[in-house]
């Protein structure tokens, strides 16, 4: 069974700190049981980076965050054991999904907390 992941090309920026977060790929097609990585790139300063998802008709659900300086990961409660977050090249934040299921279909958001301005978010749609 295949399903498609689409990253919407909306991005957020602030004029004060120059913080922008945006997706790195327009879409991903997944087969159930396969693995994939969703990725966003950010410019400016970041205190922590977050991933959320939103299923149709539901509120956004927190998945994971990573602290930029310490690389400490804070999972959701309860955690999603088939998901991991990592920083790459110091300006990319990845959400790694292993053993993907149709139930992972959702709108995925990456977000940046600069501690200096409003939360920045970006989203990925997995259909």
TrEMBL record:
PROSITE patterns: IG_LIKE (PS50835). The keyword Signal applies. InterPro entries: Ig-like_dom, Ig-like_dom_sf, Ig-like_fold, Ig_sub, Ig_V-set, TCR_variable_region. Residues 23-127 form the Ig-like domain. It holds the Pfam family V-set. Keywords: Adaptive immunity, Immunity, Immunoglobulin domain, Receptor, Signal, T cell receptor. This is T-cell receptor alpha/delta variable 2.0.3. It comes from Cyprinus carpio carpio.
